Amino acid sequence: xxxxxxxxxxSGSATxxxxxxxxxxxxxxxxxxxVAGLVPDDFLPFPLESAPEPLERLGVVSYDxxxxxxxxxxxxxxxxxxxxxxxxxxxxxxxxxxxxxxxDHILTPDxxxxxxxxxxxxxGPVVEWDGDxxxxxxxxxxxxxxxxxLDRLVAGAA
Length: 158
Prior knowledge:
There is one protein chain. The chain has helices at residues 3-8, 53-58, 75-85, 131-134, 137-157; strands at 14-21, 42-47, 60-67, 92-96, 115-120, 126-127. The longest helix is centred in the C-terminal third of the chain and has 21 residues, at 137-157. It is of the alpha+beta class.
């Protein structure tokens, strides 16, 4: 089992956490996450409140997508979810470990190793399942590029 798979299954079930900015504050329906041949056992959408004003205009939503079977390979599922949340218009999305989200640290170098996937509308999703890669400088650089795309999205909404 990969390091990422172990980390997302730490609680006894496997939970993929997906965050999206730019798709409004109305969550997608449960059926939108029936992708890659998998259906989560539990689906919890959270419109995130208390967002800084520029992000609030775009909408910030978090999805907890939980599977009881921790042996499922969720890499392709994560990729399909990221692609789905970026499909309806300009958005930036990422998958990250539990506890990694804070408005002051969205896609910053100090949380880059906790981000295991990302997508920017108009580009394909990227998912990394190797912990060594997530701790590397190249990954930090790639996550910084996603943050730059988020900054452009925010500036365009101003």
